[in-house]
Amino acid sequence: MGIIATLIVGLIAGWLAGLMMKGHGFGIIGDIVVGIIGAFLGGYILPAIGFTPGGGMISAIITATIGAVILLFIISLFKRG
User: Fold this and answer.
1) What is the mean pLDDT of residues 8-30?
2) What is the pLDDT, as a whole number, of residue 26?
3) Res. 24 pLDDT band, cuts 50 70 90
4) What is the rounded CA–CA span in Å between residue 37 and residue 13?
5) C-alpha neighbours within 13 Å on the C-beta side of residue 27
6) What are 54-69's pLDDT values in tens digits?
7) If you average pLDDT over residues 13-17, what whole number do you get?
8) How far is residue 35 CA from its own chain's centroid?
9) What are the phi and psi torsion angles at 80 (to 5°)?
10) How far apart are CA 25 and CA 37, in angstroms?
11) Residue 49: half-sphere exposure toward Cβ, Cα within 13 Å
C-alpha cells in the first residue's frame, strides 16, 4: 500500500475507532497515528485468532479499525489508573 493510501486508511480507521469508543478521538493527526498503529496491531492479532480478511481497501480499513479500537481500549485502561 502506498503512503497516501496508508494515511487515508489510518485516518478513516482512527476516526471510526474514536466514534466507537465514544469520545476517545485525538484530533486528525492523532486519529491517523492511532489508525496506523491499529492497522499494525490488527494485522498481527486478527490472523493469530484465525480471522483473515481478504485484500483491498475495505478489508484494510476493517482490520485497522479493529486494531485501533483495541489500541484505544488499552489507552483508556492506562488513563483511568
Assistant:
1) 81
2) 74
3) low
4) 10
5) 2
6) 788 898 888 889 998 9
7) 88
8) 4
9) -70, -40
10) 14
11) 11
In whole angstroms, what is the distance from residue 79 CA to residue 1 CA? 33
Cα dihedral sign for 30, 31, 35, 38?
Answer: positive
SS (H, E, C) the chain: CCHHHHHHHHHHHHHHHHHHCCCCCCHHHHHHHHHHHHHHHHHHHHHHCCCCCCCCHHHHHHHHHHHHHHHHHHHHHHHHC
Cell numbers 465514544: residue: 22
pLDDT band at residue 51 under the 50/70/90 scheme: confident
What cell was used for 60?
484494510
